[in-house]
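Sat 14:20. Reprocessing the chain from the morning session after the first attempt stalled halfway. Input below, unchanged.
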Amino acid sequence: MGFLYSTAVSTLLCLAAFAVFSAHAADPEEIRDFAPPPAGTPLDENYFTSTRLRNIRPVNQGAFVNVTAVNVNVFPALSGLGVSNALLVYPPGSVNVPHTHPRGTETLFIIEGTLEVGLIDTTAPVPVLFTQTLQKDDIFVFPRGLVHFQINKSQKTVRAYASFSSTNPGLVSLPRTLFGVNVDIDVLTKSFQVPPYVIKALSAQQS
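Finished this time. Tokens:
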């Protein structure tokens, strides 16, 4: 049963990557140089400055990446400019689960460490997986809406800086989207052709 479970889980996650369809909405064109600050907020150099990424320390030393986003929700000066950023810190062995950004293309710049990345191209009739090992100062691009992931297989912490072509690119996590919202188990078992216990185990991890 262990082999069956492992094989089924691997197959399920691969198929899940292909099953998520993302909207391709883009930021509206800005007809001003920048959005003015809210009433009562002075328009000075502080309005154009974010200190959110200063002295970032990982809060999660477990299996998952630590992401500190700098988007329009926390940095209003980005409104209408079509860009946002994030700092990603990957403890040893951690993963950034398969996901998409439905509203923005991402470029990932490696600040320190070595990181394994993957991108699934769904433009061809049969999806194609591209993988790469990134070193310090490398850049990898994840086109808008395509499923991608990263994993730190090293014994050292990896730090990376992401830039997005949207003020709020959005995030669709495949594990949480498929297994964390109580989709009818019959839908998932029939869609992925796996036993119900596989779906229940994956759903329990997302609860």
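The first helix runs from residue 2 to 19.
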